[in-house]
Amino acid sequence: MERIVPRPRLRAVVAALAALLTVGLTFAQNLPFPLEEGEGEFATREVVSGLEMPWEIAWGPDDRLWVTEREAGRVIRVDPQDGTITEALVIDDVLVGPQHEGLLGMALHPELLQGTGNDFVYLVYTYDDDPGEAVMRRARLVRYTYDEATEQLGEPQVLLEGVPAGDDHNGGRLAIGPDMKLYYTIGELGGNQFANFRNPIEAQRLPTADEVAAEDWSAYVGKVLRVNLDGSIPDDNPEIDGVRSHVYTYGHRNPQGLAFGPDGTLYQAEHGPKSDDEVNVLQPGGNYGWPHIAGYQDDMAYVYANWSEAPEGVEYSDFVIPEGVPVQAESEWEVTDHVEPIQTFFTVPDDYEFENTPCGDIGFICWPTIAPSNLAYYDADAIPGWQGSLLVVSLKHGRVYQLQLSDDGRSVDGDPVYYFESVNRYRDLAFSPDGTTVYVITDSRSFTAADEGGLTDELANPGAILEFTYQGDGADGGTEGDTQGD
Predict the structure, then answer these.
(1) Tell me, what's the pLDDT at 7?
(2) Number of structural domains, the chain?
(3) With contact defined as beta carbons under 8 Å apart, do 73 and 97 qualify?
(4) Which of 402, 486, 403, 479 is nearest to 449 (CA)?
(5) 481 lies in a domain?
(6) pTM
(7) Could you give phi then psi for residue 233, rounded to 5 degrees?
(8) DSSP3 helix / strand / coil % (the chain, rounded to 5)
């Protein structure tokens, strides 16, 4: 049977046709269409394993891989040659939870170890703002100074604290732009779903002038912030509803991906609900639609059910919206500033069957999403066909997806392809300076897609750094060696 890979704008029609063509067949990912596997031969190696939920990885100017461990509250430096670990920092007051709490994002100052005195590393983590009483989750953005002689991070300077945090969807990705501003993603804290279904989604709420003056950051939920390197509000940040704050964009669900292109274009990836993970180009002051829109404003496979206003006694469901829960179709939300994504994973027909999947009670693994945890811009020419691409890591399918960008970098040219498939949860990635090698960190546990379909919690490389080094052209885009591949 011919393999059909739909383009983003034609996906609605092609997905419906593919669903008809594939009756009786089971895809491991439970998608309405298969995806192409990228070409190229890669040598594969596990650099190190046994890390405690690694969350961010970056190639440092010391030729070490800098990694944050969410649960350990550690920053470590790893020698990519032999896997030797040097501990640079342990943060004692990190609040750790089972999913999205702990030590999260990290950004290395571009002049780190360049002799300018800017030997700074920026970190964000969750903490308890009310020890001894009920847990009051907050997030803190801190600048540390790296001492090359002791190989330690110290002299913490708090840039922002009291930032909203929760037990779900904290975002927490950091990046420093070519404008020398710090960008920081914050999720909607899992409102309107599961145990938090009574909590309203505030991704559309904007800070008031009084809140900003009082350093009350409670309206920063579901936002991407733009911050001066001393924590202050940039003078050229957008005024949104007449107020200038740290807020750069808003209307986000769980933005965990953030990357700059060489021309300063800022790309962002965020988790969708049951479909429509998004890759966006961020525009100052842009509204990205959540919770009123998931993906495109197309009335396909999503309506905004406001569970926070459900009558007493109503129980949350992923599939049935009871009477009394306010419902709004995407097309009913009338706005003029909504910014559409440049790619979704995946837009499916409105009658797509989400409930009956091979994943049973852990149905989200089989839903048509990839759970993008981060993305990176590839600007080298070492791997044919990759230059000018975004590489997106997936938590659900142990894959790295390549999105070839248009010449202006503002749209996706063609269809996504995937590389390095294994039974893992890919959390972040980094490139070697020459662009020949991709380093991917994996979660230590949780569920992902199984080889035979459905799901598994038996990960091939838990808590690891995996190395994929390009060897040349070929037909095999899968993995070899120490990782579990096709």
Answers:
(1) 30
(2) 1
(3) no
(4) 486
(5) no
(6) 0.92
(7) -85, 125
(8) 5, 35, 60
Q: What are phi and psi of 309, to 5 degrees?
A: -110, 20
**Residues of the domain holding 123:** 8-472
* Residue 169 annotated to the active site: yes
Mean pLDDT on 442-456: 93
Residue 482 lies in a domain: no
Residues 60/73, Cβ–Cβ less than 8 Å: no
Measured CA to CA in angstroms, residue 261 lies from 175, 265, 287, 293, 438 at distances of 12, 5, 21, 26, 17
CATH of the domain at 23: 2.120.10.30
- Among residues 100, 109, 169, 397, which one is catalytic? 169
pLDDT of 482 > 80? The answer is: no
Percentage, residues of the chain above pLDDT 90: 85
Residue 485 forms part of a structural domain = no
CB 48 within 8 A of CB 482: no
Q: Is 139 helix (H, G, I), strand (E, B) or coil?
A: strand
Per-residue tokens: 463:
């808590």
Q: Which two tokens stand for residue 31?
A: 């998608």
Q: In 81-101, which positions are buried (b, 16+ CB within 10 angstroms) versus exposed (e)?
A: eebebeebbebeebbebeebb
Contacts of 47 (CB under 8 A, 6+ apart): 65, 78, 80, 83, 439, 464, 465, 466, 467
pLDDT value at residue 349: 94
CA angle 383, 389, 392 (to 5 degrees): 100
Q: Is residue 157 part of a domain?
A: yes
Strands 36-37 and 417-419, sheet pairing: parallel
Q: What is the pLDDT of residue 33?
A: 59
